[in-house]
Amino acid sequence: MRGIISAAGYVPHWRLQRSSIGAALGSGAGKGNRSVASFDEDSTTLAVEASRLALRLAPNSAPDALWFATTSPTYMEKTSATILHAALRLGGDVIAADAASSLRGTSGALRSALRSTESSVLVASGDIRTGMAGSPDEKDGGDAGSAILVGESTDSAPVIAEAIAVGSATREFLDRWRAPGDLRTHSWEDRFGEQRYAALATTAFDAALKDAGVDADQLATVAISTPRPRAAAALSKKLGAAGVTVADSLANDVGFSGAAHPGLLLADVLDTAEPGQLVALLVLADGADAFVFQVTEAITAYRASGRHLSVRRQIDDGNDSLPYAKYLSWRGVLPIQPPNRPEPARMSASAAERRLDWKYGFVGSRDRESSALHLPPARVSFIGGNVDDMDPAPMADVDATVATFTIDSLAYSPSPPIVFAVCDFDGGGRLPLELTDVGPTQVDIGMKVEMTFRRLSTADDIANYFWKARPQRGAGANTESGS
Amino acid sequence: MASHGIKDQVAIVGMGCTPFKEHWDKGLDDLMVEAVSDTLASAGVTKDQIDAWWLGTAQSGMAGVTLAAPLKLQNKPVTRVENFCATGSEALRQACYAVASGAYDVAAAVGVEKVKDSGFQGLNAFPVPNDGTQRTLTAAGMFSLVAPAYAEKYGIEPTELRRTLARIASKNHANGAKNERAQFRREMSVDSICAMPAVAGMLSVFDCAGVADGAAAAIVVRAEDAYKYTDKPLFVKALSMVAGNGSGSVDPTYDYTHFDECEAAARDAYSQAGITDPRTELAMAEVHDCFTPTELVLMEDLGFSERGQAWRDAEAGVFDLHGDLPVNTDGGLKSFGHPVGASGLRMIFECWLQLRGEAPADRQIDTVDRGLALTHNLGGYPGDMVSFVGIFGNRTD
């Protein structure tokens, strides 16, 4: 049996109230919130965070392949998936490649993963959705990550949703386009794309149903990911009439998250689906791809594992106090005066590669004799002085407590001030770390924090990634030592 | 294995120090030429009589040529040294050991920093290529961690500690106001300092050292030769340097209320000098008050106050100009300014003036009869620093 072993969405902490856009621009009020990636997040880090959540749900499964889909890649030429590969500490024989940089990358990679002969494949995606100030893309977009681990069912890593059928339809037509590096996506007249998509959606959906040998009314839920909500209106109406639930598109709470959206919707559906149910995912992106899954009994234990962090929980945990102007500054549209300090120097490629597991995997070392934790890893122990007698100490999934903290308004930051805390890890060990997703007045000694993979800075177009700490989110965070 | 020290084996016989300020009109060479000229004149020697030179600069220049070229030294050994903010002290330490070893008769230590050409506020370390995982906090941010930790440990209300820190800054401003070489010469009241906006933790810019350009220098000879150059030499009683292993950053038992490296350096220095009760034996101390909480905990690390009592002693005026043990009588880093490579030698320059009775009348200490002065210089961050402690006296035992 092949299908989905785990699926997770990552909804970043910050929300922009759509009404704040209208208030700033003197235009009409909007409803609901869109999700916003923080200044230290990009499509790669969003995908890393989602992948960490997905892999945490499948501790006995190691992917054989990794695909990363985004329409907002940090690099051209250079692969971003290898950064995920390093942050997730996948094996050297695991291929990591980008399915960039169009909306269809995700469903293409998902389809390939479902039809692959590899025992498991991770399809990760992340997107930062931008648009001109006041534009529908800015308002209706949302930033998110998602990750779907696809593979053969095993006793130790059972599938929670069996893949029943896939259907696709493809036809070239010009609907939406964006030049590399631009914030603005252009589009042809709405009605042209809507009608073309409507036809493709029906074709792909019908093909999948036929392949599955089921009628539409046997489906419990259908999730539809589309940059053109109205293109799915007719199909949604028909499904509704047949008693099928059309899943929340998350338009009101997140927005359309581009390449991340199919995985986000699928994770959200699987967060509540019941064993035996048939669920479908329909992705409209320069064509249409339909997937039909049947939920298995394994989903019950999966959700009860204590490692499950639902999309809804993340939506509820969001902070909607972000001012529109700060949002614009985070996206580079409204440059903010930084402290008058030198900007960070670019990282050294060779130094970073030497410490790959530290920089990307957050792996320190632990002295075998004294158990003293060394961050970064060291060869000589600060307790006892033993040389080269240490074990790797993976700390990315170990939570910590704030021992003391400070707010630094003088240090360079793309979004000052820096909130900085001395973090004591559960089970021993300490590291002073920058905090993120937190305001300067929201930190306390004794606060529980968890690690998060972020982009610290950018210099010479080199994105410098490392780990920060953020206030512990949701239930089910792993509090056990990772060593 | 031992730290024997070189007590009373060498002496400082000449010193000079430029004003510390924003020297927009003077470059590195000007600062070195001026400090060295004053120093040579003070000892009554010419540059050709100096056998060997040590130049301390953290990041204003590299190699001995940085000094040899502007001074036009002829075939002399010149060594550039660097040890974070303790660079100036390190230059003196090397010169002293060179003379004590017998390798040279006369050595000079020069400390200099030209920090105001960077175009940025504050001090900015020269970036060594690295993996990009280093923390990005300012020194102010790092040292600001000390204040809440100290308040928590000793049950002090943060507002009360805020006033104590302001009192330390106010004291150093009052001393600096009397010093024509100091960068900031304005007295600051405790209330006005408390009213300043915080920039790092509870610290405002008035809790931070001044950032200035400047240079200072000293000439060292064997103790038995000292009186050939001056009738008031300063004898070196102790020189101690400790480089920490950085474990404070990752050791959960470190509580940010003390600096192990400073304690260790002080212990070593007192042993070298034969001091058992620094609070009563020392006439004065110049300490590395890069930030006000630093001076606070140094009073305990250096043994001037019991643990948890420095804030009471500071409030009681123990470390005031006319207190039991005057600290930073020249204004300290706070008011005198902090040209990194020069600061260690600037501290010794103040000891030179005070122990020779040459400080201006309005800031002469009352304790000069004790005859011993301490300088303390550190570089780095809480839990990850180097520390120097030197002790100097105006007579031999």
Please supply descriptive tags for the structure shown above.
heterodimer, A: 483 residues, alpha+beta, 2 domains, ten-stranded mixed β-sheet, five-stranded antiparallel β-sheet, 22 strands, disordered C terminus, B: 397 residues, alpha/beta, Peroxisomal Thiolase, Chain A, domain 1, nine-stranded mixed β-sheet, 33% helix
Q: Strand percentage of chain A, roughly? A: 25-35%
What oligomeric state is this? Answer: heterodimer
Q: What's the Cα radius of gyration of chain B?
A: 19 Å
The general outline of chain A is globular
Q: How far is the N terminus from the C terminus of chain B?
A: 25 Å
User: How would you sum up the major sheet of chain B?
Assistant: 9 strands, mixed
Report the helical percentage of chain B: 25-40%
Give the strand line-up of the largest sheet of chain A: 5-4-6-7-1-8-14-13-11-12
Mean pLDDT of chain A: 95
- Reading off the top of the CATH hierarchy, the class of the largest domain in chain B is best stated as Alpha Beta
Tell me the overall shape of chain B.
Answer: globular
Largest interface: A-B, 49 and 36 residues
What's the CATH H-level superfamily name of the largest domain in chain A? Thiolase/Chalcone synthase
Count of individual domains of chain B: 2
CATH architecture of the largest domain in chain A: 3-Layer(aba) Sandwich
Low-confidence stretches of chain B: none
Distance, first to last CA of chain A: 33 Å
Give the CATH topology of the largest domain in chain A: Peroxisomal Thiolase, Chain A, domain 1
Strand content of chain B: 15-25%
Walk me through what this model shows.
The complex is a heterodimer of chains A (483) and B (397). By secondary structure, chain A is of the alpha+beta class. Chain A is built from 13 helices and 22 strands. Chain A folds into 2 domains: 2-327, Thiolase/Chalcone synthase (Peroxisomal Thiolase, Chain A, domain 1, 3-Layer(aba) Sandwich), CATH 3.40.47.10; 341-471, no CATH class. Chain A is globular and about 70 Å long. Chain B has helices at 28-43, 65-71, 87-100, 139-144, 146-154, 158-177, 190-194, 260-273, 278-281, 292-301, 310-315, 332-336, 340-355; strands spanning 10-17, 52-56, 78-81, 106-113, 214-222, 234-243, 284-286, 372-381, 384-393. With 397 residues, chain B is an alpha/beta fold. Chain B is globular and about 55 Å long. A 9-stranded mixed β-sheet of chain B has the order 3-2-4-5-1-6-9-8-7, with helices on both faces. In chain B, 60% of the residues are buried. In chain B, α3 (87-100) crosses α13. Chain B contains 13 helices and 9 strands. Chain B folds into 2 domains: 10-118 and 213-234, Peroxisomal Thiolase, Chain A, domain 1, CATH 3.40.47; 139-209 and 235-393, Thiolase/Chalcone synthase (Peroxisomal Thiolase, Chain A, domain 1, 3-Layer(aba) Sandwich).
